[in-house]
User: What shape does this take?
Amino acid sequence: MAALDVAPGPDRPDAAALGAAFAAGTTTPLEVAQEALRLMDEREPVVNAMWVRDPVEDVLGRAEAATRRWAEGRQLGPLDGVPVTIKENVARAGVPMPAGCAGVEPVVPDVDSPVARRVDGAGMVVLGSTVMPDWGMLSSGVSSLHGITRSPLDPSWTTGGSSSGAGASVAAGYAPLAVGTDIGGSIRLPGTWLGLATLKPSAGRIPLHAPYLGRVAGPMATTAADCAAFMAVLSGPDPLDWTSLPGQDLDWTSVGTGTDVAGLRVGVWTTAGYGVEPEPEVAAAVREAADALADAGAEVVEVGPWLTQAHLDGVNQFWQARSWADFARLSPERQERVLPYVADWVRAASGLGGTEVVDAYHAFGRVQADTVAAWDALGLDVMVSPVAPCAAFPAEQPMPYPDGGRGMWHINFTMPWNMTGQPAGTVPWGAMPDGRPVGVQVVGRAFDDLGVLRVMDRLERR
Assistant: This one.
């Protein structure tokens, strides 16, 4: 399969550029929506990013309303009229939520999630809901329900997952912004493999309709500034999510105006000590990013391993037990429809006893405690690391290391921050010799989402 023409340009503008164009009257939300619909018609047969495409009349109706608001000077904000997609596990009233799995009876929510309500309230033009792999437990675009989602950069490459369709919708130029979710790397892995800027925000920063330990929703975009602009829409408390953070007066507009990193204490972490160690090109990209921050006045210090394989194995075992509970409730006929790789993975937990499941659950707390202790001992403001040990793998492959029990070994650099709740983003940095993108992860202190985005922005300006 040949690569699609998705280079940044007239058909792949960022959200900030669209807002400026709407204000200047050089284009309209209606024209942008029409182009988005055309691109989806053209590219979806290959990319396969969309689970539900909203009716054309609904998309154009939202865009026409936004066009009128801009023309009359009563726009709802800088993202009014900007196209957006929303991952299928983020509730939208009336849109089925099958979690990427052909074996389940989809939940059909009767109300919008806080995320969907806020997107609508900002006047954004929702194009539809994007696909994901079975139960979100794969780092690829392979789904028993949806088939294979492919990278718009090269259809032979994976998108990453589980926010596979969300990332692909941005990389393909359908929308400059997408909502993904992340429980162990599901926003950031597509970020690195599709060349995107993304943010796994602080736990509770964006309210969820179904809170769960480690899970967050967050923005996927092409620039840190666009991530920040989207955070201004999505963040803030909501009574539906009892874990949501109290409201804070955060200046999201400060991202994109230039960031002084002088004096920041930056840790550089390239040896995980567990899982799979990064390929040389991936580690080199992180070193280059750290050097760029050092050249700009940051104090860079080395970070060694602090977690072990037992930490990751415990987290993996608990996730298996959780998914086994869902799988075991399905009829034998429905179990047969689940992706075989995922079915085999969950069956590994079928013989666990209650004590073993509780012990696995305690791995979450051990990761959290040991990670916070390591961070505090170093006195870090920011850390840079690989996002994943490798670049994009074949699109048909469910995981980068699918054999030998190594299914989750590639989330060694991303998983700790879901446990601690610290913000972590991805910034595109370089490429492998064959052109596959390589990103760098930027991790911040607890609740310092702005700090992460500002450092990401500084790296983008290298």
User: Anything to note?
Assistant: The mean pLDDT is 96.
